[in-house]
């Protein structure tokens, strides 16, 4: 293992850090659904969420037109629906969702928790009205 004093970097360089544990976060509030956690660090280039779908719940078919998404199942099981048919998912399933692909998610009897990661969307720009 490398001694931290041997690692290169400036004093103001951002530092890696542990943000949490997906297993603990997913188990913390068993009845909670939706986004249980969001990456909110300032200056980030990524967005990430921990999402829980309730038992037998689903997320309807949809597509993300601009961003590829990486999905990692952390607990429970379910089915990823796609134009190629249904795909079972379980803890450890790592799924690439290319931009433009249509997909749905259905949780199994115990629910389903997963992490999504994608490039951060640029913030909205407020623009003035065009001059006539």
UniProtKB/TrEMBL annotation:
Residues 1-22 are annotated as: Disordered. SUPFAM superfamilies: RmlC-like cupins. Transmembrane segments: none annotated. InterPro entries: RmlC-like_jellyroll, RmlC_Cupin_sf. This is Cupin domain-containing protein.
